[in-house]
Amino acid sequence: MSLQMVSAISNSSLLQPGFSLLNFDGHVFFFGQKGWPKRSCPTGVFLLDIKQNELKMKPAFFSKDSCYLPPLRYPALCTLGNSAKSDEYQYIIHGGKTPNNDLSDKIYFISLVNKNSKKMTFRCIEKDVGGDVPEARYGHTISVVHSRGKSMSVIFGGRSYTPLAQRTTEKWNSVVDCLPSVFLIDFEFGCCTSYMLPELQDGLSFHVSITRGDTIYILGGHSLQNNIRCPNLYKLKVDLPLGSPAVTCTILPGGISVSSAIVTQISDTEFVLVGGYHSDNQKRLVCNTIVLEDSKIEIVERESPEWTPDIKHCRIWFGCDMGKGSILLGIPGANKQLISDANYFYILRCKGEEEDKEEELTTQICSQTSSEDPEDSTPFEDSEEFCFSAEASSFDIDDTDTYNEDDEEDESETGYWITCCASCNIDINSWVPFYSTELNKPAMILCSGGTGHWVHAQCMDLSETMLLRLSEANVKYFCNKHIDLNKGLQTPPKVVHLKKQPMKPLRKKKTMKLATTTKKSFLRRLFE
User: Fold this and answer.
1) 103-117, 196-210, 402-416, 432-446, range with the lowest pLDDT
2) Contact indicator for 442, 415 with CB cutoff of 8 Å
3) The predicted structure's pLDDT at residue 499
4) Is 372 helix (H, G, I), strand (E, B) or coil?
5) Which helix H or strand E contains 527, and what residues bound it?
6) Is 53 within 8 Å of 4 (Cβ atoms)?
7) Residue 408 pLDDT class (50, 70, 90 cuts)
8) Angle, alpha carbons 277-282-287 (nearest 5°)
9) Is 424 annotated as a binding residue?
10) Cα 46 from Cα 31, distance rounded (Å)
11) Could you tell me whether strands 318-323 and 326-332 are parallel, antiparallel, or unpaired per DSSP bridges?
């Protein structure tokens, strides 16, 4: 095992606990940044380019028929497909935290549809399921099992917010363990069924799961309710006959009390377990080899790498599997650094030099790995976790389109992230799209009051229909502050008086003529 430090160039603040990595045919993609994406990369997905121990990031793109994928932190993630080169190879993403700390219950399928040196394009599709749909959560795992020629996905563990009916003012955003239910999802028919097994008594999060065929091995994990790291090793077996599925659980000896550990595969039957925590204030520096043969599992201790003093003495650490026997580890940077959010990163290679070659992974790994987010929890608490799934290899990618965070404009005080009014609540770190036309920035409209200024359409309580009408029509708009002033300055409308219609001369002449004729007839009769 060898440990090598890598330098993140100009963008290390994006690499925070909670993100994931996607590995497509040896290309590593970053997903799940902290905060909403900026205009430099509105998708929030980057290609990681590692050359000469330097890490750079290049924006990736989504196809036109893709759905919106928020930057989810700590989701459950696994692959669907036996080979990274297969056309059907894709990732399943479930749950996770949005940048405003809301939990997601959605399921996404993401695949790579176009790959060249200049542009990487993904297609993301949201999947709808019915039945016993799992609640929104994070710190859980999702796996794919294969039995009798059929495949299904399995979701287990995780944490969620306290139900609304049980919340108090002091603990409004507190989290609890999800029920220890096993969810079986059939994406072909879009249905989900939950199973309560007597062997699973406590909810677990930040555990490790390794899938092989129709069997899932669950190792470690942390229980909030009991504040313990489970020492049990669970074996879930899923049978998919023509009728109803059968799910059984067996408790095996030889488990490890650990949470937030990382697993990487080094051969068809061998895996390496690295990192994690023994307790809230003790990192786990021991490594283990896990061997799967037939229906048996064996866990033995193996020689650990020569950890650096920074790793040994740091309070927290995080990382994830990069594929093909490599692991990316991160530790917080020193407080004296100019960038307070910067972290140090290392690549741990668990294979020997003679074994470090391209191999197709026939066994699926689905492991939740992390450490806590320093801003959201106390040291060593397994409340925050993220997952990697990538390979630490050098890419021959053109550097012209490499993402540089220094090129970003400061939008905290100007541009779209201004305080447009006294009641403005638009914040770059918590904003979510409100209108269907929004993607990575809020909709704004120009107020004609005074010298003119921009305001957020959402702060002005504009409906989407009205916003579209104002954008298409050539009319002046006045915000809530200037609308009354504008009315007072307007010139009163001119009152139009109705004119009386004069009597028709023809009718008057006719009346006079009738009177003259009557008088002549009277005089004639009088003299006769």
Assistant:
1) 402-416
2) no
3) 64
4) coil
5) helix 505-527
6) yes
7) very low
8) 50
9) yes
10) 7
11) antiparallel
Q: Is 78 annotated as a binding residue?
A: no
Largest separation between any pair of C-alpha atoms in the chain: 153
DSSP conformation class of 369: B
The pLDDT of 191-214, averaged and rounded, is 92
CA-closest candidate to residue 34, choices 17, 55, 11, 59: 17
Return d(Cα 346, Cα 5) in angstroms, integer. 4
Alpha helices in 424-504 (DSSP H): 464-472, 483-489
The counts of H helices and E strands in the chain are: 4, 35
Amino acid at the residue 193: T
Looking up tokens 């389109």, which residue turns up? 401
Give the residue extent of every domain in the chain: 2-353
Give the pairing type, strands 130-131 and 191-196: parallel
Specify the DSSP element, H or E, that contains 444.
strand 444-447
94 is in an annotated binding site: no
124 known member of a binding site: no
Matching residue, tokens 């320093």:
374
Spatial neighbors of 47 by CB under 8 A, at least 6 apart, are: 27, 28, 29, 30, 57, 58, 59, 60, 120, 395, 397
Percent of the chain having pLDDT more than 70?
74
Confidence class of residue 482 from pLDDT cuts 50, 70 and 90? confident
Strand 54-59 and strand 2-8: the pairing is: parallel
- 482 annotated as a binding-site residue: yes
Query: What pLDDT does 145 receive?
Result: 93
Q: Are 243 and 191 in contact (CB under 8 A)?
A: no
What does the alpha-carbon distance between residue 41 and residue 275 come to, in Å, rounded to a whole number? 32
Under the banding of pLDDT at 50, 70 and 90, the label for residue 528 is low
| Residue 421 marked as a ligand binder | no
User: Is residue 447 marked as binding?
Assistant: yes
Task: Give the lowest-confidence range in 148-157, 224-233, 285-294, 408-417.
Answer: 408-417
pLDDT in tens, 253-293: 889 999 999 998 888 889 999 989 988 888 999 999 999 88
CATH class in words for 2-353: mainly beta
Share of the chain above pLDDT 90, in %: 29
Cα-based distances in Å from 238 to 180, 184, 506: 16, 9, 104
Residue labelled with tokens 């003259």:
516
